[in-house]
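Can't paste images in this forum, so I'm doing it all in text. The chain is below; anyone willing to post the predicted structure tokens underneath?
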Amino acid sequence: MSSSMPPPPPAPAQTQAPARLSPDPAINDALARGHAVVFLDVGMGHDAENMRHVGRIKLELYTDVCPRTCENFLQYCTGQATDPATRAPIGYKNCPFHRVLKDFMVQTGDFLHGDGTGSACVHGGATFADEPAGLALRHDRPGVLSMANSGPDTNGCQFFLTCKRAEWLDGKHVVFGRVLDDGGPA
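Text version of the structure:
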């Protein structure tokens, strides 16, 4: 004959505040959504030696919507990508904004030539295909992060940030993130 004891009562439910990884609530909100956050330090000057730091752009990357595009971007932001011949890090550090169109957008990312003619990607080759879910997102406000291209399926290393709504780009450029500010999601 054996006696069995009833199971202990369940522990009372505890509510726990989400982990705070940053003093910036916009960053914490983006991370809570499962998205990556990167920073672009921006400077003014003619070359790296004469560069004066003027600010930091915080970007939320839609890694759940455009994983390949975000991985490409992340590797160039962090220096994880390397030159196949020299194995030296390559990426956006000291890369100029080569195209600035008032009240429309600013474009950068050509770390090969600095003039908008270079293309590279971490997925092999110089370009990679559009991610349909990113094409479905809209250029509906300032601060949209989108891939520059020269037609369908020609994404590389170049990207742009919108300065205002640009609906004529919808369905033609992969949207993969947005500029964060301290105000949270727009």
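The beta strands are 36-44, 52-61, 99-101, 105-108, 144-147, 159-162, 175-179. The chain has three helices and seven strands.
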